[in-house]
Amino acid sequence: MQAWHFSESAYPYLPPDSEYESIRVNLPNRIYDPVKGAALWDRYLDEWCIAEEEGLEIMLNEHHQTATCVDPAAPLVLAALARLTHKARLLILGNPISNRRQPVRVAEEMALIDVLSKGRVEAGFVRGVPYEISPANSNPVRTNERHWEALDLIVRAWTNTDGPSTFEGRFFHHRNINIWPRPYQAPHPPVWVSTTSPGGATKVGEKGYVQATFLTGFDGTRAVFDAYRKGWRAAGRGNDIPTNRLAYAALVYVAPNEKDAMEGARKLLWYVTANKVASQFANPPGYVPVSAMVQMARGASHPLSAFKSDASVEKAIETGIMFAGTPDQVRKQIARFYDHVGGFGHMLNMGQAGFLEHDETVLGIKTFAREVYPWLRETYPGTGISGFAPRSAGSAEAQIAGWKGPLI
Amino acid sequence: MATTTASRKVGLRGVELDVFDQGTGAPLVFLHGASGFAAGAPFVSGLTAKRRLIAPSHPGFGLSSLPDWVELPMDIAHIHLELFDALGLDPRVPFDLIGCSLGGWIAAEIAAVVPERIRRLVMVAPVGVKTGPVDRLDIPDLYTAAPAKIEAMLYHEPARWRVDPATLSDEALTIQARNRETTALLVWEPYMHNPKLMHRLHRVTAPTLFLRGESDGLVSAEYVTSYAALLPNARVATIAAAGHVPHIEQPEAFNQAVFEFLEA
Fold this sequence. Notes:
- The complex is a heterodimer.
- Chain A has helices at residues 34-53, 74-84, 103-116, 133-136, 143-159, 198-207, 217-234, 258-268, 270-273, 279-282, 290-297, 303-308, 313-319, 327-341, 358-379, 396-401; strands at 2-7, 57-60, 90-95, 121-126, 165-168, 173-177, 191-194, 210-214, 241-242, 246-254, 322-325, 346-352, 385-386.
- Chain A is of the alpha/beta class.
- In chain A, the strands form three sheets. Chain A has an eight-stranded parallel beta barrel, surrounded by seven helices. A two-stranded antiparallel ribbon of chain A has the order 5-6.
- Chain A has one domain: TIM Barrel, CATH 3.20.20.
- The radius of gyration of chain B is 17 Å and the shape is globular.
């Protein structure tokens, strides 16, 4: 198991949400104070460096025109981290390639950061949430098709080393692809794709890329991982799916005592509860299939929207979108989740959000790194196999009981 | 003239279109807007009473299939040109053409490419050109406006046309969602226009009537005037107590204006 520290680098100093229509897309940027924003960036970068010192890997992502994530150019921040850090893997999850006009440019950016970091880039690609469509002025129809064609082009750009090559696809056209530099890692940085739908995960499994899913809870995550395993096997990659192909992103907060842990966890919930999005941005035509649109017209909603209307730490833990508490509590929560979904190899820890202050964030990072992570690595080694075959180590409870590492 | 009834499927190369084809007399082709063709709307019977009305559902709308290469209104114009041949319209006999909103854009593309095939052209609250300044949308952004604002842009009397989705069948909701998706595909960027079209419209020879509902919040009077000025022989008329869909809100006034123009 590898664990990654992740923050959306939010700008939380906002007026009451009754005073704006949407935190995304149309919130006027006069609300953003660049001086306060610069101070926030100092601390977010510091926190990633502290996470590295504590032995965690680093993850960041990208959103546009939103206070929830003031990182509209994640490759730039990744490049900064390439020089601020020395050993952590650097995961960008990810590049919104169905909204970017030049996939070859994305290939160049990733290759350059791979060189700057001496081969530490983990290159993630996302279709992007629906509210990214308007900021990118990107057609909401056929985003999946663009995503996969762009990724194909990027991998070709990374791996072609014999001078200019050409690409004439449905959406992208290039006659002279010959990027300098080429990636540091051979044949190219590991590729990650995030999707929260089983349909998408099957395709990721067929390709054998690392599959990440965000806040999909117990059953949603299991469905995504099952679909991935199905795609992996259908493509003839073998019956065994290495756990290191699967990643789960959750809100994670660990503190030595329960009171501090719950206080931090409540602050982390900002990520879910502050996400006020106007309906016209939340579901542009074509973003989800027609059949899903029909279900929504009949009143269906995303599981997270239902959660948001009545959010609590307890409910977040119960649904599996959050792991929070004392180290012992969190170990048990993760073990239960791990068994339910069939195993995975990467924990993407959203360890900072909203008003979780620097000291609190650092306490969460350090407690996780020192009291939970060693157990995770020992119990769930990276060589594990994902699926539902019984493991020799036995049940989650037995694994915790048999563990010799530090317990609080 | 052929007498046919209601809708049928017409297979063309790589696409199957659902085509409403009813009535007798000289063919009158009707190209629907973003919300699709509603055969039961009152204006339809008024038109079929006098003419053979041919109203294809555009690719990706209604029950018509959507080929994966279609992404622009011009692509649909080409498919409809093929449809006219498949329906046996005599290329030597020009026909009358009505286009509403997005359908007006498609009609304008057709009329600019084959001006000799169009006898008279009716453009109802059409989109398709950009005549205004760079820092202002000619057509307000349908995709960033709150739903309540959109219905106010579309209708003179929004409350009268509000539909509770719960009362619609799955088939109707599916068509609605497909229509919305295909519209987004076609109009997203450049928004609601083809930058080339304004440089081709001078080729249109048919006398043209632009119709606009006086409460239309999408297509302004200024826009229609500037659009009409791009065609050699066009004039503008307004329909009272109607928004963006005057054929729906004022079917009698609409049909009267259409026939007065076509029969002039």
